[in-house]
Amino acid sequence: MKKIKILTLLIILFTLCGCYNYRELNELSIVSAIGIDKAKNGNIKVTIQVISSKKESSDSSQSNTNAKFITYESTDKTVQEAIRKVILSSPKRLFATQMQILVISEECAKEGITKYIDFFTRDPEIQMKFLTLISKNTTANNILTTLTPLETINSTNIRESLKTNTKYLGIGYEITFEDIINNLLNDKIEVSIPSVVIINENKNSDSTKNLEKVKNIADSKISSIAVFKNKKLIGYLTEQESIAYSFILNNIENTIITTKCSKNGLVSSEITTSKTKISNNKNNISIKVVGNANVNESSCNINLNSKKEIKKLRSEIEKNIKNNIKKTLTKVQKKYKSDIFGLEDIIYKNDPKYYKSIKNWDKFYQKINFNISVKIETLEKGNTLYTPERK
Amino acid sequence: MKNKISMMQLFSLNIFIIISSFFGIGIYNVFKSAKTDAWISIINTTILSFIIFFLIIYIANYKKNLTIGEKVIHLYGKKMGTIINVLLILFVASTSISLIFNLGHFIVTQFLSETPVIAIEIIFSIAIIYINIKGLETISRTSLILFFISLIFVIFSILGLLPNIEINNYKPILEFGYKKTINGGIRIFLLNFVPLFLTLIIPKNQIKNKEKYNKYTLLSYLLGCIIILIITLVTLGNLGINLTKLYQYPEYIVLKRIEIFNFIDRIENLISMQWIFGLFIIISFCVYNINTLIKPNNKSKLLPIIILFAITLTTNLLFKNITIFNYYTYYIAPIIRICFLILIIIIALSIKIKKILKS
Amino acid sequence: MNKIIEKLKTDTDEMKDIIYRKKIISKITTYIVFSESLTNSDKISDFIIRSLNKIKKVNKKNILEKIKNNISNNKVQEITTYQEICKYLHSGFTIIIIDNISTYLALETKGDLSRSIDKPESENTYRGAKDAFTEIYQTNIGLIKRRIKSNKLRIKNYNKGKYTQSEIGVLSLSDKVHKESYNMILKKMENLNIEDIVNSGEIKNNIEKENKSVFPTVRTTERPDIAVLALLSGKTVIVIDNCPYVLILPSCLNDFFKTSEDVYGKSINVTFTRILKLFAFFIALLVPAIYIAIITFNQEMLPTDLLINFSTQRDGVPFPAFFEAILMMICFEILREGDLRVPGFSGSALSIVGALILGDAAVNAGIVSPIMIIVIAITAISSLLFTEPELINALRIWRIFFMIGATIIGIIGVLIVFLILIIHLSSLKSFGVPYLKPFSPINKKELKDSIIKLNSTNGGQNEKN
Lengths: 391, 359, 465
Fold this sequence. Notes:
The structure holds three protein chains of three kinds. By secondary structure, chain B is mainly α. In chain B, 75% of the residues lie in helices and 0% in strands. Chain B has helices at residues 7-20, 22-34, 38-60, 68-76, 78-110, 117-134, 136-161, 178-193, 213-239, 241-246, 250-255, 268-271, 273-294, 302-318, 322-358. In chain C, strand 9 and strand 10 (246-249) form a beta hairpin. Chain C has a five-stranded antiparallel β-sheet, with helices on both faces. In chain C, strands 6-7-9-10-8 form a five-stranded antiparallel β-sheet, with helices on both faces. Chain C has a two-stranded antiparallel ribbon with strand order 11-12. Chain C has three domains: 3-108, no CATH class; 137-251, no CATH class; 263-447, no CATH class. By secondary structure, chain C is α+β, with helices and mostly antiparallel strands. Helices cover 46% and strands 14% of the residues of chain C.
């Protein structure tokens, strides 16, 4: 009697739950990047970059001339239809949980970004940890089909360079898709996304002939921040302004500031830590930057042992940062009229009563005064305290 | 009584009751009603939970060798008592249908997107029936072990998420005044704390060290409240109010942000097992409850199967999709719980009247 | 001739093994009967026959008393029935049958038929006493009694088995033993109804009948110091004749993780080893199942680079993951069983290397993927960390359950089988003691010695239960 019970149980198990979600690794193709472009007649062109996992033959005498990834392209009315149509030519099912970047072309972003990214918020398999980029002056297709040196997979190259950029240079910072959704849902901040360009573009950028050269290799390069208003792309910042953008949003980990030390001399110093605080008092926003710097290179004779020179150096760096931030804030406020720093959000969060009394945010935004104060300490950590004599 | 359970095991059962209803259902409701002040609502709930503490101690101390079903029959006589027992069974069933739906829905939407919900429920039913056949002792021992595992996971996830908190996400504080926080507090109280009356099914004589009953029960309520509070704070601090209201299971989504030592990530599947454990234990405890209310000291193995089958069938017929479920937990379930609370208060009053009449 | 001698001869079919020596003492016929293969002939000639020669001048009334007083044997017993004659004869005693007297004498003259006290073969230790139990009951009891020199050591004897009549002793320390389980064990021993006992395993299976799970609730050991440690912590030890493995009951899951070397090491080192054993326990159970679950259902749990590696490796493999795992596991179990038959227990390292080479050839032929070999090798090595073979077998069966669960619905299946395992273990009782003893009903004193070792002086013993 007991055995019959167990048998029926097992039969129920095996028939009812018979492997609905069972997918062997052989039937999956791992998607590493997706790019979205505009095509003719209002259609959308989707480029999907897939990692190819073919086994290499055991004798490695023949050099591996196959690329490690392939791209599929497909055009249709919506993003979902275009992606689904890819299976007409791909032998395996697309598996998008490991997706690393999403590249949206400029033209799509100028139209309004929400229409193109809605698909990615609803799919349960796609995890919103991937980075987003705007492709500047080129199409997403071009960016994703370039074979890059040093990293076999294109999207890893872009992602890693964005990460190291965040860590060491500060021209923008890595923004995950979840942050973009957060900004889109919050009507008190505007979206801003880093962008990527192609350098040295040539005919052979999508074949391994590109990798056989030593210089002038086609490659992707991280560029400045794109500014949006009402979820549409309206312009870009310059590289210096992107550094200021990172300063304001407290995302600088390390960057290089170059200042003048005499008539013809320049000093390059490295900011090692920095912290920014934004606070408001009615319509005056005050931004305080506190940080440490380190002198890396100088072409005039500076003596790091004298207090007067250090003071002068510090004030030069502070002035540089302050001017940069002020320039960026004014440009965004007056030229683009877009609130990418979330000042409306900050006023709402710190002072909800005052916020309720603001009737029209756009007009109020133009009247905001900025009060910037920068304080930098230099740590004399360099190997030399004097410059080698130049005569 | 032969099978005695210890006070630590009851402690872990209490905490599981508080935490498991919070996942998915509770957190959605508290953010819907109180927005950024959800954590203040939970502090309100802590104050309200003392009501339940006094009620449970009062009812548990009366006639220490009877379960609540038998106490009711003792108080009101057979006919009236059976009717009240049926009402109690309906309340326990209403708790368990929302838990079963939550479990199935969570697994289907996050882990396996193509399996039908009924398959998951059948597979869990095997484990639930197995533990009910073994009896209360096994339920309590298993809950203690699972409690330790869940505690480790909770501490781990909190430590992993603490560095990423932004204080800006908590502002503005008390934007709409105290009313909404009280609203949220009452909702959480009704959803998460009223099911604590399920533990009345265990007669006090079955507990080994019953002189520590008061102390451990109060400790368990406080610890449960602290855990819920920390989960809310950490979730809100990491995601911000907009993303929290967007998702159905924000605690699961926030786990995707854990990154320790730069290589331990993607562990959300592992840590979310603590909720699956909690839901499993409480569903089995509800089935044990109904089993004992119908027939105390029951040894038959058929009754749990029938009860579980009936509950699963009701769940699948009532809740077809998540919208109906959210409507149910926001509008209908609090009303059912208030009736439950009133019933328990009536029982406590009858005990007092009977004691006054006797003396 | 004596009636009894005739009956004996017809019953044993005149076996050449049984010698009937007739001796006449003062005109009374006495027979000295013994079994040649079981007795020590020196003892019989030196002690019994020589002292019988010195007896003179007896008559029928006092011959029994005189023989009893003058015989220089250490153990003299009076028996009265025919069954007892047979029993003592077959146990190696010499029977003196005097004509026309219905009381007989049985004298102990057992020969030494066993090997000497040797090193334990199946449980290796690098620090600790190196003597092991042998097949003789008295020697085993002696080895235990040498270590416990107290009056409180109680031994209860039973004789079971229709043809084997084996002697069984149940030992306990009367002031430390867990009363409830001791009474349960005694009741079971009295109701034991076995045909024959050749090995302690038969008693073990019979006592454990109530326990329908694959997890063992009785420990077997070959070493006296482990048995003594168990006695001192309140457990009962059963020693059985003709078997060098004694039974220790009741046993909980925690006891399988302890070794006798824990007493020697420092607390930190012992804690480390025990945590390692806990990891090995979970690895041996879960790793193949988690591997199957991750490869076939939950690929999102892997980091990208690992996923690319795995999918490159599984490219040309024709079988589904579950089938590969079962195939490799069967190969390894065959190797392990075959290795037990190879003389010398140190062949396990050889077999692991053999498995690896076999696996390598299979990978090159394209039947399995390299990761599967590593997974199975790690599983197998982890399961060899435990000394109790029953536990390793239990792990094997549950591992298959986990793999089935993983094949059906991935990591949720592993979770559900894990829940069923915990439920199963929580409901097990080993002779009245809950199986998950220090964890489930929490006992702070025992927790100090379970996974972490906090008291450095007490060496694995508890003061009271």
